[in-house]
Amino acid sequence: MKKFIAFLLVFVLSITVFVKPGFVKADSGDNELIQTPGSYQEYLEEQIQQNISSGYEDPDLTAAYNQYMNYTDEEKTNFINSLNYLNQPEVTTTTVNAIDELEAPGEVELGQGIELVREDSSVVAPPDSRIIGGTYKTVTFKMTIFGLSVSSFSLTLYYNYKNGDYVTSTNGALTAHKNFNPAVIITDGSAVGWADGGYGFANGNFRIASVATLGFVSFTKRIEMKNVDPNGCDARFFTP
Predict the structure, then answer these.
(1) How far is it, in rounded angstroms, from Cα 87 to Cα 220?
(2) Among residues 88, 131, 222, 228, which one has the fewest Cβ atoms lying within 10 Å of its Cβ?
(3) In 54-131, where does DSSP find H-type helix?
(4) What range does the domain containing 198 cover?
(5) Which value, in Å, is the radius of gyration of the alpha carbons in the chain?
(6) 152-167 pLDDT, tens per residue?
């Protein structure tokens, strides 16, 4: 599934970020959250150093940094223009409508190199496996700019099954996120999983906040998932 939305939307997951209306060119002099090619590189390097200091290496962060550093100067400028544009509040409502399009794995193009993406993945252990959590399903909603993942939200359901796809019980659920947008703060909320009628279910919340010169705004978002077979699931990302 790949849809193109003709007008230039841009922000993901109903995050409203207050920046100066109409900003497209980067100008960090008025708002430190408005990036330049150099300041965004410094931001990524700071995140990497923080991870090193804590003894943790995030492969997704490393991949984002390497991808950004491989951009030409023109590509970096285009990326930054899109990053600053997506943080404008007036695109929020349109973007929420675009997220609703992700009823199955695929992409929705938002213009200016920005895409919303849904990815589903599964790991299925043998039914007689004694490894707790050996079978699980993950749904991820993410935003990319010219292919570089900026923010992502995931929900994973761990479950047990029999007879191919009959879910007998669950071993919990987990929310997770990755965020490489300096204007946004994301916090994972609680997640629950349960079995009913041979299906596995899960839901998990996220708190998304932005802090800028004109104030503070925040949102709660939720992923709901229904495991319909070993390779597929029904899921949605919405405001509860």
Answers:
(1) 17
(2) 131
(3) 59-69, 73-86, 92-99
(4) 2-238
(5) 19
(6) 999 999 998 888 778 9
